[in-house]
Design goal:
Layout (H helix, E strand, L loop, with lengths): L2 H13 L2 H8 L3 H15 L4 E3 L4 E3 L1 H24 L6 E7 L4 H15 L3 E7 L2 H9 L5 E5 L8 E15 L19 E5 L4 H12 L5 E6 L2 H9 L5 E4 H4 L7 E4 L7 E8 L7 H24 L10 E2 L2
Parallel strand pairs: 3-4, 3-5, 7-8, 11-12
Antiparallel strand pairs: 1-2, 5-11, 6-9, 6-10, 6-11
Helix pairs in contact: 1-2, 1-3, 1-4, 2-3
């Protein structure tokens, strides 16, 4: 049994087609077909049902899939441990959706400039899925927000980020010199779907001031929240980094009166998995980038140590 046979097997299973798998691998269709045939012959079981338009895993194929993934992951880890020059190799990064599109692009651009021969693989996951990937060794580093249940994982604080109130331009709240959470009592909220921990955290934060936000709409992306707010469907609390990229005058952002709500963004990793020199270099790059970029921005937004901030999750 050869690793390339397992790679072709997994690719065919994911794409449902030998032709598409061959194109993805840069090989001819007969070459992939022969690799599958040899694997099936060695295992003594058909791994696919060859239907008219799609290759579907048999019961045996489904059983092989998990082990095949583990074997390829172990092989990748072995190569990284042997060829560990600190300049080449792969870094697998995961981040939650309320962080990934805002923090990762400039961070990865800077890392690529410093390590042009490194390969960075990015996963965007909600917290629960991200923690599973981290636990199973499918990612090396994760960026998420507290709190989270991460048994056997290590993490370190990167920065504290304010959660800002976003309203439509011309909203009545703009006439108030100071807005408190209690002022949002009767207003409809737009929140992320329940799979996103930011929603549970905002609800928890509101409940600390003894009111329940009236959620009229839920969506899967912060960008959708911003658009719905601009249409005056409701108000929301979103991370400051989402404001930094928003130039649409149809929305306005402001801080809640102290104590200002915030979240703590952290970097997490699995200490029981091998950490290559390149991964360690990436983690150092994250620390430097966050200090230079986010720290200064947080200072401009007025977060100060003498104004306590109720912490929310991601």
């Amino acid at each position: 049994m050869e690793l390339d046979q397992l790679q072709h097997f997994i690719r065919v299973a994911e794409l449902g087609s030998i032709t598409r798998a061959a194109v993805a691998a840069g090989l001819s269709q007969p070459a992939v077909s022969r690799a599958l045939a040899r694997l099936e012959e060695e295992l003594g079981q058909p791994l696919f049902e060859r239907q008219s338009r799609r290759m579907v895993l048999t019961e045996a194929g489904a059983a092989v899939m998990g082990t095949a993934r583990e074997m390829l992951l172990l092989a990748d880890n072995l190569r990284e441990q042997v060829v560990d020059d600190g300049a080449t190799g792969r870094v697998r990064v995961a981040a939650i959706p309320t962080i990934a599109p805002y923090l990762l692009p400039p961070l990865l651009k800077g890392f690529r400039a410093e390590f042009p021969h490194a390969r960075v693989v990015v996963h965007e996951e909600t917290t629960d899925g991200l923690l599973v990937r981290l636990r199973d060794g499918e990612v090396d580093v994760a960026i998420l927000a507290e709190p989270f249940e991460g048994r056997y994982l290590d993490h370190e604080r990167l920065f504290e980020e304010e959660l800002l109130l976003v309203t439509a331009a011309g909203h009545p709240l703009q006439a108030k010199p100071r807005v408190r959470l209690a002022d949002l009592q009767e207003l409809p909220f737009i929140l992320l779907g329940e799979a996103h921990c930011l929603t549970a955290s905002v609800v928890s934060l509101c409940q600390q001031t003894e009111f329940h936000p009236v959620s009229i709409e839920q969506t899967s992306q912060i960008a959708s929240i911003q658009e719905l707010v601009a249409l005056d469907h409701g108000v929301s609390l979103i991370p400051a980094m989402a404001r930094d990229r928003d130039t649409d005058p149809a929305r306005t952002y402001r801080s809640i009166a102290p104590p200002r709500p915030s979240r703590t963004v952290v970097m997490a990793w699995n200490p029981y998995r091998h950490r290559s020199r390149l991964v360690a270099a990436f983690m150092d790059h994250v620390r430097r980038s966050v200090t230079d970029r986010v720290g200064a921005s947080a200072g401009r937004r007025g977060l100060s140590s003498d104004e306590p901030n109720p912490r929310t999750g991601c």
